[in-house]
Design a protein that fits this description.
Order of helices and strands: EHHEHEEEEEEHHHHHH
Oligomer: single chain
Shape: elongated
Radius of gyration: 30 Å
Domain PARP catalytic: 1-195
Largest sheet: 4 strands, mixed
Protein name: PARP catalytic domain-containing protein
Helix content: 40-55%
Distance between the termini: 26 Å
Number of strands: 8
CATH architecture of the largest domain: Alpha-Beta Complex
Organism: Acanthosepion pharaonis (Pharaoh cuttlefish)
GO molecular function: NAD+ poly-ADP-ribosyltransferase activity; NAD+-protein mono-ADP-ribosyltransferase activity
Length: 390
């Protein structure tokens, strides 16, 4: 998207549709030549989504289908940072004559009806995939629409066209079907570039973080596949722990503004080995032998009650032990608390499945185990966290 120029408030007064469009394009061309290096350039992500949508429509209707990609106009007071990072969004629009969609006009003068005397009001010139259009008679509307209208054969139209006040209106219900090419504002509604640039940077950083997060999750799912049943349980447990670790990193990134580390698969595998070793040590120290035959009958009758009582004691201890005055250490304590909850939950499931009693861990053993977790977390942090970007 290219951010260009400022329009005089009365730029379209006295002009017909043809004259208004010619003048608008002249302004764009003159501003483009006067500004060879615009502040905002194409949004590659939106461009990619637009091309993917073109391919999707062709798959649905065939390669010979007329996509009817038109250059149309859209006016909005939505913040520029949102438009730049995410494109137009029907979820942010108000319900219009054709429901909650993204509205366009082929006459640029129509946009004046939607401009507001607030900072950032702008006209956007967009490429729009109209495809198979449902045309309503002049003066007719359907404000109940939430998506493209359905045809009699069960298929759906791609867009809607109506005319309520002498101007054609086009409506789509998927923002991937439009690509912003130009942005132009009315005189007196220009926004402050410096503030908006910061907001845009934050929005882009959050999107980058979410993509990184998805890659981590995909890797964890793939790495959890294992043929051996017992090892598969351990892998699943490690996967749950890693999810908590990544969730903690996500919250820290959102709080401090530091970028989430793009961990390599080698680092993740190395970290998983440390978790597995720590789990093995904890298992050897915590699990007691099965009860004797003499106690077996009583144990069977009271097993569930004993499990729940032991579980409650563990939980009470974990809650109490998580209180800490230092903020950074408190985060680590909170993290350890969550990890131990997973460990105890796994032990409970194993006990219920195998008949082995859940160990009544002493506080000394729990504290010792917490030290091991903390040491493992510290090593993982040192290897996994990259310094803050400049």
């Amino acid at each position: 998207m290219i951010s260009l120029g400022i329009l005089d408030k009365n730029w379209a007064r006295g002009l017909n549709e043809k004259e208004a469009e010619v003048k608008f394009n002249q302004i764009l061309n003159s501003q483009n030549s006067a500004t060879p290096t615009p502040k905002y350039v194409e949004n590659e992500k939106q461009k990619k989504l637009f091309q993917e949508e073109i391919n999707q429509v062709k798959r649905l209707h065939g390669n010979e289908f007329d996509l009817q990609i038109k250059e149309l106009y859209h006016a909005t007071k939505a913040p520029r940072n949102l438009i730049c990072s995410r494109g137009l969004d029907q979820r942010l629009s108000t319900v219009g004559l054709f429901g909650r969609g993204i509205y366009f006009a082929d006459d640029v003068r129509k946009c004046e009806q939607y401009l507001y005397n607030v900072k950032g009001s702008a006209i956007y010139k967009c490429s729009v995939i109209l495809g198979d259009i449902k045309e309503y008679p002049d003066g007719k509307a359907d404000p109940q629409l939430k998506q493209e209208p359905e045809k009699e054969n069960g298929d759906y139209y791609d867009s809607v066209k109506g005319n309520m006040d002498g101007f054609n209106e086009y409506v789509i219900y998927d923002n991937r079907r439009c690509l912003i090419n130009y942005r132009i504002v009315l005189e007196g509604t220009e926004d402050e570039d410096s503030d908006k640039e910061d907001e845009i940077a934050k929005a882009e950083k959050k999107e980058e973080f979410m993509e990184t997060w998805k890659r981590h999750m995909n890797h964890l799912v793939d790495s959890c596949k294992h043929d051996d049943e017992e090892d598969a349980k351990v892998e699943q447990e490690i996967r749950n722990i890693e999810k908590i670790r990544l969730e903690i990193r996500m919250r820290r990134e959102m709080k401090t503004g530091k970028p989430l580390t793009k961990l390599s698969y080698n680092l993740l595998r190395e970290e998983r080995k440390k978790w597995k070793s720590c789990i093995s040590k904890a298992e050897n120290k915590s699990v007691l032998k099965m009860k004797t035959d003499r106690e077996h009958e009583i144990a069977e009758e009271e097993k569930k009650k004993e499990v729940m009582e032991t579980w409650k004691r563990h939980m009470n201890y974990l809650v109490d032990s998580c209180k800490h005055d230092d903020e950074e250490d408190a985060e680590v304590e909170q993290e350890i608390c969550k990890i131990q909850k997973i460990r105890l939950e796994v032990r409970m499931r194993r006990e219920m499945k195998t008949g082995k009693p859940l160990t009544k861990l002493s506080y000394d053993l729990l504290r010792e185990e917490r030290k091991e977790w903390k040491s493992c977390i510290s090593k993982a942090e040192n290897k996994s966290i990259i310094p803050e970007r400049r």
